[in-house]
Write a structure and sequence with these properties.
412 residues, alpha/beta, 6-stranded parallel β-sheet, 3-stranded mixed β-sheet, globular
Amino acid sequence: MLPGSHSVRRGRAGRGEIAVKLDSRGPTVTPRLLKFHAPEIVFGIDSMAEAAHAALRLGALRPMLVTDPGLIAAGWADEMVGHLQEQGVRAVVWHDLTPNPKDHEIAAGYQRYAEQGCDVLVAVGGGSVIDAAKGVAILAANGGHILDYEGVDKAQVPIPPLVVVPSTSGTGADVSQFCIVTDTTRNTKITILGRALVPDITVIDPRLLTTMPDWLNAATGLDALTHGIEAFVSLGHNQLTDHHALRAVQMVTENLVCTMERPADMPARMLMAQAALEAGLAFTNAILGAAHAMSHQVGGLLDLPHGVINGVLLPHVVRFNAETEPEPYAMIAASLGVTDPRTPATEAALALADRIERLARDVGVPRGLSALGVHADDLPRLARSALQDACMSTNPRPADEAQLRALFQAAM
């Protein structure tokens, strides 16, 4: 069983398996035992300085600041260095990583961490930066090679303190128990999953979102949308995750296009930052589904933006799952005003898939995987790998290799 996940039987008890009992005082609700993982969260404009306070509170004497060249060019890394200096500590800056962090990059980051005698890790960047920082933290505590930790709870020793400042609105890495790393030998992405990977503190400053390029804004926004939808329909969902998942889907649908058209619109940026946060809280506790399991394989093969791949795959996964489990998708469709609550569930789920496709087109996502460079002869390998991904275990509809191959084919 995955951490934070639950084997949920949908049906009479409804979403979250809530049992309703009647007594003399009226109905009472008795939920099953739940766990909800979350870091300490600081949210607001100009909040970045709080990350330096947090690092000091966690014992930073020689922090490593993990970032990337884009964040350095935008000035955010220098701002973080300045805030740390104000607290009397000098950071070691490491930025030698690329999108979709590679196994050898994480090994190099750990070597720098060890050579410089670092302690607390501070990550300023998107999902790739945060995942790289988690990877370095795993090796700092547990040693070995990062690929040794693929799977659930393989890192047994607690990682060093980790403070993160996300610069994108979608990956959820700043609140999640996931770490995604590219295995450069097999050209695939591996999933490392465990409660120990939830950062200690996340500081969300919406100012950082204003310097994202359009493609990254679109990609991370669609990633947040996919997190919300997959968490809501996941077998591991519960009444705590449902609330965050549904709000995230609504906020992305209503605000992503606005941030593309008016990048400096701070109210929309704040709502997208909140959407990414709530989607992250939902999926790290409910886990995900087939769209992510499939996307990880395409991203590992072609080193492509994860959210763009999600934007292509998600409508096809919705249609596939809705053949047997349309009801939760119908609830999402009704909440968005896509359909009337009285619309038959399967019809509503298909309308939701169409709405997702329109949003993806509106923000510039290609119509199919072939436009991203996927070839027909890649599909058997992609299907085999996706079937082994941890996210498949909470997809609401079971799938075999042939069905996943057909799904990939439909998305071409």
